[in-house]
Design brief:
Chain lengths: 333, 430
């Protein structure tokens, strides 16, 4: 870097004075050739080190995104050549299909519910577990167990538990709450909230873990100082701990929103988007309606991608600008 | 300048690696000739015995009879095979030589894209031997795949529960079916299970009502022309709605899967929790795999769907379909010989004897030992016309929109008109 900066002026100085004496141009040319060699070597090294990763990234990330964009303007069943250009018909079809609009609505519901319901619960439990409690490490491990379970295993377990003849209804019968029994995942009125319950059970442990890690960064001295000044526990949490935890909370909200928008596996394993579309999400719709209609499926994929990207960029730009110096946050004060 | 140089380097590196990669991806020319060192890849949908074992035996016998030929035979889960593996393999130019081909709109889509070998002349004798069952795999008068099994959908029932409810003989009309369901309910027995969580099992109910409402002429013209203006398509949904009002189905049927686990629609029938399921000819195998001792229960019996009065439909029209194999357009000629062997009378008789399904070849009819399959074969023989399942007949684009609209009727949020709208919208988007 320093080499380059000092060599810099020599370039502009070298060729500019055409009337300069030959004796002066000779060392300049030598310097230029040397610099060129060094530059070439440097770029060769960069290409060798970064090239493979770049190629993999372009081939498997950028290119498919671009191809999906291209396919989305065609009517294509996945067989034979791409030849029936239909313009924006696929997009029009998606945004006029009530099932897809319902899927977007379900995604938005889960985003909002995650932030508003899972967030406070996770923070509360993390604050509790951050105190000295008997068996604290055991409880911490226990809370994290659902997150470690494979998605398909957790989904199948819940599917069996919540089926009309499953464990949950049997338990309700056994404790005398027989009138509460339900075909939980088959009732369109409650299926989305049952799904949200499963998701919360699965991902709360991750949120708590993040919050606990964030709490480790809050200096104990501040608590002590506040306590000496006469602040009670509640005041310490709301005036000191929560503001200092805010960067962690903002990161968690970001991860939670993106996860909720892309939600697929848990829904696919438990309900496949049913009953009658009650738990459908954009990604589930994509799989169900993209089969045999790759152009339409690509349009759905592009819509999902754009929604996620816009949400991510806006959130980074406005909510996380203090936390990250990301691509869109640089220069923001 | 520096940035440009970097870009140039990256571009050169990217191009060279991509070109290298593409060259490596190009399919090796394994179709060069017959005899010496030919490998035939064969994909099917049998993931458990007896069928998986039978296909492995057939492959080994063919290898023994044709020195130098290797047959790589692999079984995949049915929907994964049809919806993901085969389309990807065809698209990438690396198709298996012999693979399972669905009838109707599915074989048409693959044939029109030029992926399937025309078997009309190569297998002319065999096509003639098999007879009418080959029709669903015909595209514009040319044969692109051959069926090895063919059967019709009907009602699988628990004879013990029927006896308990005092039902002496299988219902022959829809009214008798409704009465039988009421008698079962009076005994505290759930009459039917349906795997509406998987969509298509609910779809089959509407297809059946459409068969009863629509004349054969309507069926035969509407499906290829994708014209659903006839009022019989709406009548089908209305008849289904009327039937649904009797609440014949298992609790939570909207989330019930068809074939996985004891709480699936097949599992409920297998374990005596419901009395009936309307399902395809493969169901005894599925039910057998879902009982505690993994055998087909003694009580399992079969009867054809009862006639529905009032419609234009011919009561001798039945609904069904089957499984077939086709040969890739790029496959070596010897693959056609293997295909002929798979569909030969001898192998078809062995297929029938396993009880895995009803063989398509008429010469195998007597080899059928399973009583339920014999019943289905009799129903098939008595059919004046077999309508292919409508989602298969219409093609891959129709399956989900059609079946989802039908499930919406089941869930009380859709109307008979919505199903016809879904059909028309899909047809318009083709």
């Amino acid at each position: 870097m320093t080499d380059q900066l000092t060599a810099g002026p020599a370039v502009s100085a070298g060729p500019a004075p055409a009337s300069a004496p030959p004796s002066a141009s000779t060392p300049s040319r030598a310097a230029r050739d040397g610099r060129r060699a060094r530059d070439g070597r440097k770029w060769l090294e960069i290409a060798l080190f970064a090239g493979p990763a770049l190629i993999v990234f372009i081939t498997f990330v950028i290119l498919p995104v671009v191809l999906a964009g291209v396919y989305s303007f065609y009517n294509w069943n996945g067989l034979g050549p791409l030849e029936r250009f239909v313009g924006i018909d696929n997009y029009v079809r998606a945004f006029t299909d009530p099932l897809f609009l319902g899927a977007i609505g379900n995604n938005v519901t889960i985003v909002i519910a995650s932030v508003l319901i899972q967030g406070p619960i996770a923070i509360a439990i993390a604050l509790l577990l951050n105190r000295k409690l008997p068996g604290r490490s055991f409880i911490r491990a226990l809370i994290f167990v659902p997150y470690v379970l494979a998605e398909v295993i957790a989904g199948l377990s819940w599917k069996l538990l919540l089926s009309p003849r499953g464990g949950v209804n049997a338990l309700l019968e056994a404790i005398g709450l027989g009138e509460l029994t339900q075909p939980w995942l088959a009732n369109p009125d409650i299926a989305l909230w049952v799904m949200f319950g499963i998701l919360s059970w699965k991902y709360l442990g991750f949120a708590i873990l993040l919050m606990l890690a964030g709490l480790q960064g809050v200096p104990e001295e501040l608590h002590e100082a506040a306590a000496i000044d006469g602040a009670n526990w509640w005041q310490i949490q709301t005036r000191i701990t929560l503001p200092l935890l805010a960067p962690t909370i903002r990161i968690w909200i970001f991860l939670s929103m993106i996860g909720s928008l892309q939600l697929f596996d848990m829904v696919w394993v438990t309900t496949k988007g049913g009953p009658v579309g009650a738990t459908n999400t954009m990604a589930v719709y994509l799989i169900q309606y993209g089969q045999g209609q790759y152009g339409y499926g690509s349009a759905i994929a592009v819509i999902l991608f754009v929604i996620s990207l816009v949400v991510a960029l806006l959130y980074q730009r406005f909510a996380m600008r203090r936390d990250l110096a990301g691509a869109v946050t640089s220069g923001v004060r | 300048m520096n940035k440009r140089a970097a870009t140039r380097w990256a571009a050169i590196a990217a191009i060279s690696v991509t070109v290298g990669g593409l060259a490596a991806c190009a399919p090796a020319d394994d179709n060069a000739g017959e005899g010496e060192g030919v490998t035939i890849r064969w994909w099917h949908n049998a993931t458990s015995d007896p069928l998986q074992g039978l296909w492995a035996d057939v492959a080994a016998e063919f290898e023994a009879a044709n020195p130098g030929v290797t047959v790589e035979v692999t079984g995949y889960q049915n929907e994964d095979l049809q919806r993901t593996l085969i389309p990807n393999a065809l698209q990438s130019g690396d198709a298996p030589d012999i693979f399972q081909v669905w009838p109707g709109g599915e074989v048409r889509a693959q044939a029109e894209a030029g992926y399937l070998r025309d078997l009309t002349d190569d297998a002319a004798d065999l096509i003639a031997e098999i007879g009418g069952a080959v029709k669903p795999w015909e595209v514009d008068g040319r044969q692109y795949a051959l069926p090895f099994s063919f059967g019709i959908t009907g009602i699988w029932y628990n004879a013990d529960l029927f006896a308990q409810a005092g039902i002496d003989s299988p219902p022959e009309t829809l009214d008798e079916l409704v009465d039988a369901a009421a008698a079962l309910k009076a005994e505290g027995i759930t009459p039917f299970s349906v795997g509406a969580g998987d969509l298509w099992p609910a779809g089959h109910w509407w297809y059946q009502f459409a068969l009863n409402a629509c004349s054969v002429e309507t069926l035969q013209t509407a499906i290829p022309e994708r014209n659903f203006d006839d009022p019989c398509w709406i009548e089908a949904g209305e008849n289904l709605q009327e039937f649904l009002e009797t609440e014949p189905f298992n609790e939570g049927f909207l989330a019930t899967p068809a074939q996985t686990g004891a709480d699936s629609s097949a599992g409920l029938l297998a374990n005596g929790n419901v009395a009936m399921e309307f399902m395809g000819p493969w169901n005894s195998g599925v039910i057998g795999s879902l009982t505690p001792d993994t055998t087909v229960p003694e009580f399992l019996s079969w009867f054809p769907f009862p006639s529905v009065p009032g419609g234009e439909g011919d009561p001798t029209v039945t609904m069904g379909g089957g499984d077939g194999f086709g040969v890739s357009a790029d496959a070596p000629d010897i693959a056609v010989e293997l295909l002929k062997y798979i569909h030969s009378a001898e192998v078809q008789q062995r297929f029938a004897a396993t009880g895995a399904g009803i063989a398509a070849h008429p010469a195998a009819a007597d080899s059928l030992e399973d009583e339920n399959l014999q019943q289905i074969a009799a129903g098939l023989a008595g059919s004046s016309f077999v309508q292919l399942w409508l989602d298969s007949a219409l093609g891959p684009e129709f399956g989900n929109p059609l079946n989802q609209a039908i499930v919406n009727i089941f869930g009380g949020v859709g109307t008979p008109e919505d199903v016809v709208t879904a059909l028309k919208d899909t047809a318009a988007a083709l």
